[in-house]
């Protein structure tokens, strides 16, 4: 069922096209975050400007025409309201124009499900690590399957923490990937480490590391904040795997693009003889392909939502989304 998926929860306007579970196109244009972070109205304005172009890019890549599209999906949340609205309106316009069915999709479910699909895993524990979120997830099966949150951040997502730190010490571009580049030549300085069972917190670490700006080298600070935060994620993940008797781990979300995090998680899995999987980076970054993938499955399973009930929800938690 040729399905188009639109993602616009934050800085990325992404459009994916999927047919029978196969991603035919996964195109995007991004708002330049720069050193200012994200200003919702500016990001939304950029999405409006880019929407038509990205939709065209995706149709061309998939070698299909708009009239061939049989279903539509869009990110309902979580995300920034003004940004989500742009994708929602684009999706509703397409569905209304073509007279096809439409489904809202939870962004975190999409990351977790495309990763499970790409890894070929059946019932993994999933570590979802992005800018706004950091959660340990397991799919609870039954009449309304949904992801249970086994553990999560008490304050901010690990991605936002690393981006905020990059801004604090004036790295350019101020992203977690720049922190990773500096970390490659750093030495360890002891930092605050906060794990409570399968939950964790990052603001104490961010405040402490930021207080050392100018007193310690950028390389040492980047190495130490990255190693400490990733070690916290690994400890909580290891506990979740052992407590649930799981033998498969997936990592997904923007921070799953980090090769150091994947290396550390792989070593946890190796120690316990567990399998470790992840998707290509195009699915860890925000993207429309994962939205189209989940939307197609929902539509094939007979689930759709009337146009007038297709809303957005900024705080749409993963444990409230039924996974069809
Ligand atoms: Fe994301």
Describe the protein in words.
The chain is of the alpha/beta class and 324 residues long. The chain has helices at residues 40-62, 81-98, 107-119, 158-168, 176-183, 203-211, 218-243, 259-272, 281-284, 288-300, and strands at 3-7, 12-19, 22-30, 71-77, 101-106, 125-129, 134-140, 146-152, 195-196, 199-200, 248-252, 275-278. The strands form three sheets. A five-stranded mixed β-sheet has the order 3-2-1-4-5, with helices on both faces. It starts with a strand and ends in a 24-residue tail after the last helix. The chain binds fe (ii) ion.
Radius of gyration of CA atoms, rounded to a whole number: 20 Å
Structural class: alpha/beta
Q: Tell the overall outline.
A: globular
- Name the strands of the widest sheet in spatial order: 3-2-1-4-5
Number of helices: 10
């Amino acid at each position: 069922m040729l399905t188009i998926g639109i993602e616009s929860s934050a800085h990325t306007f992404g459009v994916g096209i999927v047919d029978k579970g196969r991603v035919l196109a996964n195109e995007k244009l991004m708002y330049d975050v720069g050193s200012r972070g994200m200003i919702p109205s500016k990001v939304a304005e950029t999405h409006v400007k880019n929407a038509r172009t990205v939709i065209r890019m995706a149709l061309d890549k998939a070698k299909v025409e708009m009239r061939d599209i049989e279903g539509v999906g869009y990110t309902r949340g979580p995300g920034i309201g003004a940004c989500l609205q742009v994708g929602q309106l684009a999706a509703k316009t397409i569905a209304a124009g073509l007279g096809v069915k439409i489904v809202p999709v939870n962004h975190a479910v999409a990351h977790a499900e495309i990763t499970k699909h790409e890894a070929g895993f059946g019932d993994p524990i999933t570590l979802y690590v992005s800018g706004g979120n950091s959660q340990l997830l397991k799919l609870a099966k039954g009449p309304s399957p949904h992801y249970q949150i086994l553990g999560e951040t008490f304050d901010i997502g690990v991605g936002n923490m690393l981006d905020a730190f990059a801004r604090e010490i004036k790295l350019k571009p101020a992203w977690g990937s720049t922190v990773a580049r500096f970390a490659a030549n750093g030495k360890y300085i002891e930092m605050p480490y906060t794990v409570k069972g399968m939950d964790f917190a990052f603001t104490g670490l961010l405040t402490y590391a930021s207080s050392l700006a100018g007193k310690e080298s950028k390389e040492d600070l980047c190495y130490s904040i990255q190693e400490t935060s990733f070690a916290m994620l690994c400890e909580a993940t290891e506990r979740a795997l052992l407590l649930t008797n799981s033998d498969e781990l997936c990592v997904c979300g923007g921070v799953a693009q980090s090769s150091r995090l994947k290396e550390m998680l792989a070593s946890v899995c190796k120690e316990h003889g567990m399998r470790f999987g992840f998707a290509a980076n195009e699915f860890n970054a925000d993207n429309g392909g994962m939205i189209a993938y989940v939307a197609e499955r929902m539509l094939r399973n007979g689930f759709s939502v009337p146009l007038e009930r297709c809303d957005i929800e900024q705080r749409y938690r993963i444990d409230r989304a039924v996974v069809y």
